[in-house]
Each structure stands twice: as C-alpha cells, then as structure tokens.
Amino acid sequence: MHRLARELAAQLGLECASEPERVIAGSRVHRCYRWRCADGVLFVKTAPAQASARLAAEAAGLEALGEANAIRVPRVRAQGVAGDDAFIALEWIEARPNTPSSERQLGRRLAALHAVHADRFGWESDNYIGRSAQLNGWCERWATFWRERRLRPQLELAVQHGYGRLLEAPGARVLDAVEPLLSGHQPAPSLLHGDLWAGNWCTDPEGQPVIFDPAVYCGDREIDLAMTRLFGGFEADFYAAYEDAAPLPEGHALRTDLYNLYHVLNHANLFGGGYVEQARILIERLLAHTRG
After folding, report:
1. Residue 172 neighbours by CB distance under 10 Å
2. Catalytic (active-site) positions
3. Measured between alpha carbons, how far is 264 from 161 in angstroms, rounded to an integer?
4. Which of 19, 89, 96, 246 is placed for a possible disulfide with 78 were both Cys, Cβ 3.0 to 4.6 Å?
5. First and final CA of the chain: distance in angstroms?
6. Across residues 177-203, what is the average pLDDT?
7. What domains are there in the chain, each with its CATH number?
8. 27 pLDDT exceeds 70?
9. Is the pTM of this model over 0.90?
10. 115 vs 290, which has greater pLDDT?
11. What was the pLDDT predicted at 52?
C-alpha cells in the first residue's frame, strides 16, 4: 500500500494518503479502494503486476470514450505498476440510484457515442473482454471482423477448454453462417463501449449517466444494444430514448443473438457451467434461422 501511495503521489504531483480509506467490493481478479489525495478522492483498482496490460487497456478505452465527449466516463488520473501491483486510479464519482431520467439520458448519449465513426472495423490495439484477450485487428468488412476477431477465437478457446463435444461442430457451422446472417447489413464502424451490461454504468449526483469498464472498439452499434438485453437491468425508457435518437434497422433482433453469442462464449470460457449450454442453444437458434 505504501509503495502504491508513493506512485500515486508521484504521478499526480499531490500528497496522497499512505493507505486507502476503505476497501470497495471488487472481483476475483481486482481489488478496489477509495483513496484520498490532496485534491479529493480516487477510485483505485489494483491487480497483480502481470495484469498491467489489462488495466492499461482499460485506461486507454476510458480516454477514447472521454474524447468522444458523448457520455460521461471517469477521468483517468494515474495508471501503472507499483511493486507487485498494477493499478489504475480514476476520479471518484458518487453513484446515485438510476432513474427514468438517467435511463433516457443514457439512451440518448449512447446514440451520440455511436455516431462517432471510424473508417474500418476494429481498434488501434488489442484489448480485453473481462479477463479474456480481445482481438481488434482492422477489417474492411464487418462480417469478416465478427467471424475472425470475435466468434472464431472464442470457439477455438472453448474447444481447448474441453467443450468441443458440445460446441465444435455446431460452432464451425455458425462461422459459415455469419455471412448469410449478416447479408445486406452494412453498419457504420461506430465507437462502442463493448461490454455494456448493467453493472458497467451508474448515475452521478447530477442525475447524468456514467459508463465505465469498457472493452472499446469500432463495430456495429447494435453490439452495445444487444448486450444490454443479455443480462437485463435496462428499462424501457433507455430503449425508447435510443430508438428516438437513432432507430435500429430491420433484422436487429436476429443480430442480437449473433452478437450476444460472443459474450456467452466468453462467459463459458471464463466460468463454464450453464454458459456452455446457453452457447449451444444460441448457436442452434442461429443455425435454425439459416435453414429457414
């Protein structure tokens, strides 16, 4: 803790407390703290030093979203390695309960974020989806990107984890089905949060939405909308406001399954259990659609 405090002070150019004020609920990988420094409070997330690339990617993603100036994200104050710990220090934002107003604001501002476009699909560097590597090599064609950068790596990892009996053969068929499933769909490469589930946004004291813990890249804007439906937690006000600002094209319900397959496969690879069967069911549903 003292070594981390010294590194925070050095990067910020401010006096920082020698220890955190309190521990905040983290995860099996990250430890999170409320930490006081001379100009206020920081949210500090730490992980073993070998995970420094993951926290560096998170910092880069937050900075990219912040530069878009569409929706609030926590400002990155410091990031690096101190002894055995990698860390990222963010501005402290006191979360308030989400409201219909903040849900509507989230919908409108997410649409504004998605209006930030690139000329290709991908990102300037690979990053992470949870603890899993996420490949972002640039592609001109969306179907190619989704098949080769998203579904294929997760399906190959699933086989390595011993799920080949359930997923290898149908997975190969769904890779072949990506082109027909996306036939006629030509999305713009939109700036995405990339991991937008209900635990990755909150409402600030002014009633405005804040998003965090991104897995940023440029892709079909429907990706972020699809993930909001995977685990629930988003209200009708959010969807109505988004649709009012940027209506979704025909066929988005089918593509929701195709896009959420990536996240379900990732959860299967990270946690196993029922996610493996959920992935198999999603694949069969997609294949059934290609058979008419």
Report:
1. 12
2. 195
3. 15
4. 89
5. 60
6. 97
7. 2-91 (3.30.200.20), 100-290 (3.90.1200.10)
8. no
9. yes
10. 115
11. 95
